[in-house]
């Protein structure tokens, strides 16, 4: 699953746009991940400008 | 907030605000929703816009303008600086805006024209009936409100979730998402009227570093990196921190901005039944420069114009809304997006030797007759070896696009 490091995330939404499953949603000042939809592909982890996302097994 | 409107606008950036203003001025009932508690904040933008483009819509208020730009400098990987003089810099001669003020004023205008505004109110689900959008469920303060509308404008920016929920695939390929970080810096020694662009694979792979002045000793210093080039330890923030340490060791960052800009082609179709998609949500940001303010204003206003006619005729089907899609594609904007996409596809494949050669050769050219096609022809004439490489990189499609 994808973990959001909230101390790093600047809630910019960059990751939301590349998610092939549409599993990410930027709700104002926090990122919401639909764990039922997320396939743990890690594209969001790669694109984050700040390194706020981490894929955990 | 009423239960029913002629038009629902999802997103309170420049595209949404301009659409809402346009519909309201024509007498339609409009609700604009913004999920954030404040319009224009947090900023996700380098804030530059071409003067001539901005003047298509208005003469900017003084309070919107942080700096007026008179020239642009491009710095090659080897440090060589090329100056583009005003009359040669084309649309890059422009304004650096205060987006927090600008965006809020645009929503203010929409409100003044009669639109209802709801902030900290997020569209969470479209209302879909018979394959058409009939409004949305809005979450405000944890309470779901059903708001029905004859026409909905998806202006929800780079995330572009609303159109996606309506069945339009808005996903941006990783390699075509420019991932960005920026500091608003003060106490830095810069030319207050020149934008600077640093290119190079060690500086900003698949992108560039920008310095956009915002007044005396103050500027947006930012970077965009191709999504596929972003790696742990080499993310935009890492490149930016290294650039700042090298170039502005005594500068002070008074704001951190993160964001993404799509550098893909626009959506194949920007309308659906009772739905129009504008601005970044439609993927109409410039693939080469990353600029999106003009595109959002243009498509937002056009959606208002075409959408109003469609409502008047009582038909807001995808087919009836198609003139919106066709008009922007045939416009200056559509042509610029197509051309700059092709240039971007070549640009991201250049190594530092290529970039050095291009910047050096351009600086020697007589640019009195400056246009992109002339520029490319001159670059090829000056760099025969580069021409072969550019050919392999898809130059033919580039030249064919003119």
UniProtKB/TrEMBL annotation, chain A:
A family per Pfam: Fer4
Signal peptide: none
Residues of the 4Fe-4S ferredoxin-type domain: 1-28, 29-57
Record-given protein name: 4Fe-4S binding protein
Superkingdom per UniProt: Archaea
Species annotation: Methanospirillum purgamenti
MF terms in GO: oxidoreductase activity
């Amino acid at each position: 699953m994808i973990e959001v490091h909230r101390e790093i995330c600047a809630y910019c939404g960059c990751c939301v746009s590349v998610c092939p499953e549409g599993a990410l949603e930027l709700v104002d000042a926090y990122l919401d991940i639909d764990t039922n939809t997320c396939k743990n592909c890690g594209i969001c982890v790669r694109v984050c400008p700040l390194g706020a996302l981490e894929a955990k097994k | 907030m009423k239960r029913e409107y002629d038009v629902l606008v999802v997103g309170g950036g420049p595209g949404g605000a301009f659409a809402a203003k346009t519909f309201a001025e024509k007498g339609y009932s409009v609700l604009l929703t913004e999920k954030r508690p404040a319009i224009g904040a947090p900023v996700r933008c380098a804030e530059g816009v071409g003067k001539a483009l901005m003047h298509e819509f208005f003469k900017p208020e003084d309070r919107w303008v942080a700096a007026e730009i008179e020239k642009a400098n491009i710095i090659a990987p080897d440090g060589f600086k090329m100056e583009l003089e005003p009359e040669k810099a084309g649309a890059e001669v422009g304004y650096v805006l205060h987006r927090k003020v600008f965006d809020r004023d645009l929503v203010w205008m929409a409100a003044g024209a009669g639109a209802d505004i709801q902030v900290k109110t997020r569209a969470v689900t479209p209302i879909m009936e018979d394959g058409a959008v009939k409004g949305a469920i809005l979450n405000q303060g944890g309470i779901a409100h059903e708001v029905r509308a004859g026409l909905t404008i998806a202006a929800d920016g780079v995330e572009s979730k609303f159109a996606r929920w309506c069945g339009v695939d808005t996903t941006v390929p990783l390699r075509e998402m420019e991932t960005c970080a920026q500091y608003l810096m003060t106490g830095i020694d810069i030319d207050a009227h020149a934008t600077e662009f640093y290119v190079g694979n060690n500086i900003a792979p698949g992108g560039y570093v920008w310095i956009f002045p915002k007044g005396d000793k103050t500027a947006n210093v930012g970077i965009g990196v191709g999504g596929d080039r972003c790696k742990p330890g080499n993310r935009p923030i890492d490149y930016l921190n290294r650039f700042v340490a090298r170039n502005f060791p005594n500068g002070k960052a008074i704001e951190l901005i993160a964001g993404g800009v799509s550098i893909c082609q626009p959506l194949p179709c920007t309308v659906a039944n009772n739905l129009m998609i504008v601005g970044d949500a439609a993927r109409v940001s410039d693939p080469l420069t990353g600029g999106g303010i003009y595109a959002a204003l243009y498509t937002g206003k056009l959606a208002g114009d075409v959408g109003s006619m469609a409502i008047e005729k009582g038909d807001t089907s995808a087919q009836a809304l198609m003139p919106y899609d066709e008009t922007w594609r045939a416009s200056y904007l559509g042509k610029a997006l197509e051309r700059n996409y092709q240039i971007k596809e070549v640009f991201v494949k250049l190594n530092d030797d290529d970039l050095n050669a291009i910047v050096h050769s351009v600086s020697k050219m007589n640019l009195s007759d400056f246009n992109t096609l002339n520029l490319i022809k001159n670059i090829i004439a000056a760099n025969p070896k580069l021409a072969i490489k550019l050919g392999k990189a898809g130059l033919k499609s580039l030249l064919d696009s003119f």
